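Let us walk through a complete example step by step. Step one is to write down the protein sequence. Step two is to encode the small molecule, adenosine-5'-triphosphate, as a SMILES string so that its atoms and bonds are unambiguous. Step three, shown after the inputs, is the structure prediction itself.
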Amino acid sequence: MFTRRARNKAAGNAPPPKKSGAPIKKAQFESSKKKEVGVSDLTLLSTISDQSINENLEKRFHNGTIYTYIGHVLISVNPFRDLGIYTDEVLNSYKNKNRLEVPPHVYAIAESMFYNMRAYNDNQCVIISGESGAGKTEAAKRIMQYIASVSSAFGTSSSIQHINDMVLATNPLLESFGCAKTLRNNNSSRHGKYLEIHFNKSFEPVSANITNYLLEKQRVVGQIRNERNFHIFYQFAKGASDNYRQIFGVQMPEQYIYTSASGCTSVDTIDDVKDYQDTLTAMKTIGLTQEEQDNVFRLLAAILWIGNITFVENEEGNSQVADTGVTDFVAYLLQVDSQLLIKSLVERVMETSHGMRRGSVYHVPLNTTQATAVKDALAKGIYNNLFDWIVERVNKSFQSMQGEVHKSIGILDIYGFEIFEHNSFEQLCINYVNEKLQQIFIQLTLKSEQDEYVREQIQWTPIKYFNNKIVCDLIEAKRPPGIFAALSDACATAHADPTAADQSFSQRLNMVSSNPHFELRQSKFIVKHYAGDVTYEVNGMTDKNKDQMLKDLLEMIGFSILY
Ligand SMILES: Nc1ncnc2c1ncn2[C@@H]1O[C@H](COP(=O)(O)OP(=O)(O)OP(=O)(O)O)[C@@H](O)[C@H]1O
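Step three: the predicted structure of the complex.
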């Protein structure tokens, strides 16, 4: 976790010097103060090696001390239990304190951001990085909690309280729609989020803005064994009111394919019914009207029922909806004609063209596999649009309150680095984002620091570090092509057959195989990431990258009054 530093490094956020002659307060001997274990800043270690760093972190961790600095970067080790370190008392003990006066804590980071913004009139940003389950989202929430608390004390108007409530309400709302249980983390973020809190010239919070990055929408239609769909589906299925159960046909999660196929509908540490109530409260706090909420839940119900549409083969070997009762209900939820819905699922409209002129239109029947893919594309498309709409709606609520914006504090919380038994396009994207963050980290810390020593002609022993630019290039380079360029090229080669497109991708990967961080192995490839080696499966990558929402589906949805 690291923040943008103040311009004047030496000043830090030291309290103002005491006037001479002022009475000196009696010092308190804090018998309750925890004894320092190891060093609180790794730069104080006498020998710096992986082993000594790990030993120090471990020693502190066993003492219940999860935070340690390395210069101005805070390292946090997830305790996976309540250590009682986020109480109001602890929070208050960090207010107006220089971070060197108090033990390392995420509150100290938040305090220096708030101080630096005011003292140096500078925008602030904290980047939280770490592998999946490391505790990034928790840290982001603690920072938001701290900023809300100190900024409330800064002004007295009720609108400040309201803005802070809204900022905090974005957490349960976006977690419900954007987090899910994975094998690594019961509350894993499946999207990236950059939250900016805006302040006026008096440094009172006046609004906020959320930028959302790449939701893992594939999860809507399938999850690996013992993972779950997005939390909201289980909350809704278990907690919906009788009215919603009646009008939207809400069943328990076991009754829906999208929420039950992975064999996990409940999680020990999650109370879906309570969380559903929290989501509703958050929606109200953000300002969603009852009608807006109804439409959100109508679409969620539609997605769940879309998952239950199944296809059988007719005599010609083409797909046919197995139970039109299900499609009728989906059509009612989406407010579209049920025959139109069925047609858009079981056939594809193809149009020939003669030069610039439009040619004939053909209705090509789909087989059951193709129809299932179309059905899934519809569910993913609706959920992705719904998620974007929620983020936009939250931002609209903030904008409506907006006074003059002077400075901001930004908090970046993204999905962490992932290695699973089977890794696909989603993991490649997530791990690529983590590589890019690591690059920024290297630029902002190690490289810029060492460049400064060179500029100021300071003698020092250069620290060797792995610069992961080579891995970023491997994934994103245009020329020679990296993995993404190879993937785009394979998708562009108009292969209707996904297997042929995947093969073409695999062949193109030969071109990147000279990179020492890459290995091609038949239908798989290995990327040696900064955080570990990950084996990705080629199968299905081109389809996921194309992410086609068929024209017929878009037209069908266009008829819905919900859109
Ligand atoms: N400081 C902490 N104290 C106690 N428990 C924590 C702390 N940080 C994290 N946890 C626990 O660990 C779980 C995982 O943390 P979190 O969701 O913040 O990880 P993450 O790094 O955001 O993961 P992902 O990249 O998968 O989203 C939390 O749900 C919580 O139970």
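Step four is interpretation. The chain is about 45% helix and 15% strand.
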